[in-house]
């Protein structure tokens, strides 16, 4: 049964990347054909050949690296094909409807999206939900797109709703359905590596990881469900860490917290990244001791409270 499920998943992955590649090629041609003057119109044939060659190269590369089990490169190709297909479909629709001609800035784009009512926010929330459970899209990327489309505050709210719901579902999949289902969804090798890295220090390491957007959300949530972490602890931890990480990320990507266009802003970003890397290494190496420290601390406190009650 396990081999059949894995075979089905492999075939599905290959089918998806192939279909997305074809969609990308079709809409690249359709998009270029919407121009009736200017640079794109003058060099339409060359641009079509370039677009077709590039998309084909990425899609075929994804298939080849998938078969070679080089997961990092495969996922990069997979994400690239998804983004290219979505971008070209969006550009084509905006061009043929005449909307593109009215959009001169990010503010114009956001104003147009607001006119669409609740449709776009719902789509974005569902996307954020799916990127935790099934889609191999990094949260950093989806949140950045959200900030561009909705602004930092709305992107943070929509992302929090979608990612929180997806995180809770992934946790319960690991907790209730177990290792086999989780391994099928995120990959056995990835899951095994993650489980090994947090063994004996799950609360300390996982809590730290959820605070930062650089770690794989989907795997971490499944790992939490498969670890010794209780449901109550996970719910409390995920609400707090997701709220902090998502809201800080949205305002950081927008340049509201630390600007990108000043020397001191770039310096602060460099310091922040260096501290994050140092903390990551420290937590990985000393996570078990940190967890043991807090366990002993709370255990002593509980014993003292019980002793005071008995007296």
Describe this entry's structure for a reader.
The chain is globular. The longest helix is centred in the last third of the chain and has 48 residues, at about 265-310. The chain folds into two domains: about 1-100, no CATH class; about 105-290, no CATH class. The mean pLDDT is about 80. It has helices at about 1-35, 40, 45-65, 70-95, 105-115, 120-135, 140-150, 150-175, 180-185, 190-200, 200-210, 215-225, 230-255, 265-310. Helix 7 (about 140-150) packs across helix 13. With about 300 residues, it is mainly alpha-helical. It contains 14 helices and no strands.
Distance between the termini: 59 Å
Q: Kindly provide the radius of gyration, computed on alpha-carbon positions and rounded to a whole number of angstroms.
A: 23 Å
Strand content: under 5%
Overall shape: it is globular
Q: What integer is the average pLDDT? A: 80
Uncertain regions spanning at least 5 consecutive residues: none
- Encode the helix/strand succession as letters: HHHHHHHHHHHHHH
The tally of strands reads 0
Structural class: mainly alpha
Number of helices: 14
Largest sheet: none
Integer tally of domains? 2
Fraction of residues in helix: over 70%
What would you say about this model in short?
The chain has helices at 2-33, 38-42, 44-67, 71-96, 106-115, 119-133, 139-150, 152-177, 179-186, 188-198, 202-211, 217-226, 231-253, 263-310. The protein is an all-alpha fold and 311 residues long. The termini are far apart.
């Amino acid at each position: 049964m396990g081999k059949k499920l894995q075979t089905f998943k492999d075939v599905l992955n290959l089918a998806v990347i192939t279909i997305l590649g074809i969609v990308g090629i079709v809409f690249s041609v359709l998009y270029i054909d919407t121009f009736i003057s200017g640079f794109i119109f003058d060099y339409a044939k060359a641009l079509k050949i370039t677009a077709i060659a590039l998309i084909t190269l990425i899609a075929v590369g994804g298939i080849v690296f998938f078969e070679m089990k080089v997961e990092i490169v495969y996922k990069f190709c997979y994400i690239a094909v998804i983004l290219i297909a979505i971008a070209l479909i969006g550009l084509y629709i905006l061009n043929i409807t005449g909307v593109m001609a009215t959009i001169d800035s990010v503010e114009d784009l956001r104003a147009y999206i607001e006119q669409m009512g609740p449709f776009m926010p719902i789509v974005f929330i569902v996307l954020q939900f799916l990127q935790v459970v099934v889609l191999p899209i990094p949260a950093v990327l989806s949140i950045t797109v959200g900030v561009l489309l909705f602004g930092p505050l709305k992107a943070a709210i929509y992302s929090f709703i979608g990612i929180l719901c997806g995180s809770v579902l992934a946790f319960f999949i690991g907790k209730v359905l177990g290792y086999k289902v989780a391994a099928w969804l995120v990959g056995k090798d990835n899951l095994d590596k993650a489980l090994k890295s947090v063994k004996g220090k799950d609360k300390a390491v996982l809590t730290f990881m959820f605070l930062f957007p650089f770690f794989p959300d989907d795997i971490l949530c499944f790992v939490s469900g498969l670890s010794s972490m209780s449901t109550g602890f996970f719910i409390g931890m995920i609400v707090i860490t997701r709220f902090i990480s998502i809201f800080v990320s949205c305002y950081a990507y927008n340049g509201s917290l630390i600007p990108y266009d000043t020397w001191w802003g770039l310096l602060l970003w460099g310091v922040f990244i260096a501290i994050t890397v140092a903390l990551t290494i420290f937590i990985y190496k000393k996570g078990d001791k940190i967890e043991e420290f807090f366990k002993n601390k709370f255990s002593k406190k509980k014993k003292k409270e019980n002793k005071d009650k008995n007296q």
